[in-house]
Amino acid sequence: MLQVDNLTAAYGQVSVLHGISLKVQKGQVVTLIGSNGAGKTTTMRAISGMLAPTAGSIRLGDQDITGLPAHRISRLGVAHSPEGRRVFPTQSVRDNLLLGAFSRLTFGGRKRGDVEGDLERSLDLFPRLRERRDQLAGTLSGGEQQMLAMARALMLQPDVLLLDEPSMGLAPILVEEVFAIIRRLKETGITMLLVEQFAGAALAVADYGYVMENGRISVEGPALQLQNDPKVRAAYLGGGHA
Amino acid sequence: MAILLQLLLSGIALGMIYAVIAFGYQSTFATSGTLNFGQGEALMLGALVGLSLAGTISGGPYLNYWVMIPPVLIFGALQGIVVERVAVRPAIKTRSEFGWIMSTIALGIIFRNVAENVWGRDDLPFPSPLPTEPLHFLGASVLPMELLVVVGALLMMVGVEVFNRRSIYGKAVVATASDRDAAGLMGINTSLVITFSYALSSMTAAFAGVLIAPVTLTGASMGTALGLKAFAVAIIGGLNSGLGVVVGGILLGVAETTTGFYVSTGYKDVPGLVLLLLVLSVKPSGLFGKTTIKKV
Predict the structure, then answer these.
(1) Which of A74, B123, B134, B135 is the most buried (most CB within 10 A)?
(2) How far apart are CA B121 and CA B201, in angstroms?
(3) Does residue B291 surpass a pLDDT of 70?
(4) Residue A212, strand partner residues
């Protein structure tokens, strides 16, 4: 579904990714773990078009999407719930969700279908948002904003969902809730690339994992195998914490 | 008392024009963080194109005043697109922090020179579509055209607000204004939104031009002072507050008419500019400016 080959990217003169290759197959949940500054978020940004890669290629299905602007990649079916949530604070929860379906509501959009129905279904999946549907997104708590960012990305009915640090800055009980939702999404057969700092929890839900270090993939393998890899355990799992 | 009321009413009519132009500054600043310093020239071009269509200067009138407004709005929108493509987009693309300031000023000067060559340097009369007999109201007299200025300005601002709140395209404009990168992730073509906001901004200025042309003099130099004062209004009211520009505009308009009458017309611009300096030192985000708090 999504195939990244030898991707390099830089912020100005500073090169951040030095040849990343990864693959996400249809219906798979793949996780990208690694320490801060390893390049996980940069990889996500390059895939969704927020950052133009300097070399390498990104393919979605049989289409080359390398270097396309973000709005075109979104229209092709890649939804990105970015690091830091990035909800639209001056607009209501409902408007944020409708904006998630912008490509479907406008001329030449994909999967036009039943956006209002999808909005109802996403409020079923995130009941905390239902009570707040007419509230401005900026007035939500951090956890609610995270739910909104995920719900908004899902409104695209994406072929691939990029989920960047959904647990960042959340209280433990909310982290648990976010992972419960990720497991539920996985049961629906969604294709997902998940970046997480809670490596243990991420590997527990994922099918396959990549470990990033200094802009490179250092280890990869089925999630179960990475969970039991002594080097990965020592560096990222802190002796079994999940 | 009647005199004060008169000054207030004239001040409000003038202030609403400032508000419309300032509204245009806001629309581009919100989406792109840039402004068109040629807003005054956009107003002037709108008024002169309107005069050519509805006046007698080029063998017309071809259209009556009301029918002339839509073509002038379209002209204004196209002019805004030219400004964005030529002066602003290159600066945004190269991430030049201040390039757009010089390039929009330069383009404004070019437009003024073109207008001087096409329509001449002299001020021209603009035929009024409404009776020029003033209406009397509690001892003060108001031109019907001044009422039209206020009503037209408010209608235009309400129209844009409804578009922003109700339609999915308007919501996309608001989203682009609050977070351009995140808006791109929603599938919104944000550079098209910026072009649109420039079109809207020049369109509102052109509209303001045909509204005030009948009550003032029309000519190549009519826009410069208006554009600058409207910029002061946008700063006083707050660059992100719709209510702010209306209040700021009325404040400045009334300050001008009252000072002009009670002190001296030579000093009429002073209180507004003093107000600008005060706002900048006390509340730099403007009287109604909002600073949003970002949760991490």
Answers:
(1) A74
(2) 26
(3) no
(4) A34, A217
pLDDT tens per residue across span A40-65: 999 999 999 999 999 999 999 999 99
Q: Which residues of B touch A82 (CB under 8 A)?
A: 181-182, 185
- Say how far apart CA A83 and CA A145 lie, in whole Å: 12
Question: Which whole number is the average pLDDT over B292-296?
Answer: 50
Q: Is residue A15 within a helix (H) or strand (E), and if so which, with residue range?
A: strand A14-24
- Calculate what percentage of chain B has a pLDDT beyond 70: 98
Mutation for testing the A interface, residue in B171, B185, B241 having most A CBs under 10 Å: B185
Q: How far does A86 lie from chain B, in Å, by closest CA? A: 6
A66-100 per-position pLDDT tens digit:
999 999 999 999 999 999 999 999 999 999 999 99
Domains within chain B, CATH numbers bracketed: 2-282 (1.10.3470)
What number of CA atoms fall less than 13 Å from residue A226's CA on the CB side? 29
Residues pairing with B218 in the sheet? B124
For the segment B277-295, the average pLDDT, to the nearest whole number, is: 78
Cβ separation of B174 and A90 shorter than 8 Å? yes
Report the C-alpha gap between B243 and B223 in whole angstroms: 23
Regarding beta strands A29-34 and A192-195, do their DSSP bridges make them parallel or antiparallel, or are they unpaired?
A: parallel
- Which amino acid, B71? P
What's residue B23's pLDDT?
Answer: 94
Q: Is A102 in Cβ contact with B188 (below 8 Å)?
A: yes
CATH T-level fold of A1-77+162-242: Rossmann fold (3.40.50)
Q: For residue A42, what are its two tokens?
A: 């940069």
State the pLDDT confidence band at A147, using cuts at 50, 70 and 90.
Answer: very high
pLDDT at B13: 92
Q: Do B186 and A98 touch (CB under 8 A)?
A: no
Arithmetic mean of pLDDT, B108-115: 96
Question: Given pLDDT bands bounded at 50, 70 and 90, which one contains residue B293?
Answer: low
The ipTM estimated for the assembled molecules is 0.92
Contact: A82, B182; criterion CB under 8 Å: yes
Say if the Cβ atoms of A70 and B185 lie within 8 Å: yes
Q: Where are the alpha helices (DSSP H) in chain B?
A: 2-32, 39-54, 65-83, 89-93, 99-119, 144-166, 168-178, 180-185, 190-212, 222-237, 242-262, 270-282
CB distance B206 to B79 below 8 Å: yes
Domains of chain A, by residue range, sit at 1-77+162-242, 87-158
Min CA distance, B188 vs chain A (Å)?
5
